[in-house]
Design a protein that fits this description.
With 61 residues, the chain is mainly beta. It contains no helices and five strands. Strand 3 and strand 4 form a beta hairpin. The mean pLDDT is 84.
């Protein structure tokens, strides 16, 4: 599902975070307030954001 640019609230600091036009579930968006990367989890009925998972080293495994 695609959306047209809208905002949701940062789960860390409460700042409005804009999800760009054409955003999809799984997109990563930055918070301009605290710098936290957030992942788009749901688009409807309302946008839901969660803290994006940190990329971990696999150390060649």
């Amino acid at each position: 599902m695609l959306i047209t640019g809208t905002a949701a609230e940062c789960v860390q600091c409460g700042t409005d975070v804009t999800v760009p036009s054409g955003g999809e579930v799984g997109d990563i968006v930055p918070c301009r307030g605290c710098g936290q990367e957030l992942e788009v989890m749901e688009l409807a009925p309302a946008i839901r954001l969660e803290v994006a998972p940190q990329i971990e080293e696999d150390w060649g495994e």
